[in-house]
Design a protein that fits this description.
This protein is mainly α. The protein is built from 3 helices and no strands. It has one domain.
C-alpha cells in the first residue's frame, strides 16, 4: 500500500492528475468536473 501512495505522489507532481489511487481519482473529479476523469477512473 505504501508503494501505491508513493506512486500517486510522484504522478501528482508532474501530471497533477493522480489516477493510481481512489483518493486521487476523487480529487480529480472535484478539480476537473468536465467528464475527463470519468474515463480515467476505472
Amino acid at each position: 500500500m505504501q508503494s501505491n501512495q508513493q506512486a500517486a505522489v510522484q504522478v501528482k507532481k508532474p501530471y497533477h492528475k493522480p489516477t493510481l489511487t481512489v483518493h486521487g481519482a476523487v480529487e480529480e473529479v472535484t478539480l476537473v468536473p468536465s467528464g475527463v476523469p470519468t474515463t480515467e477512473v476505472p
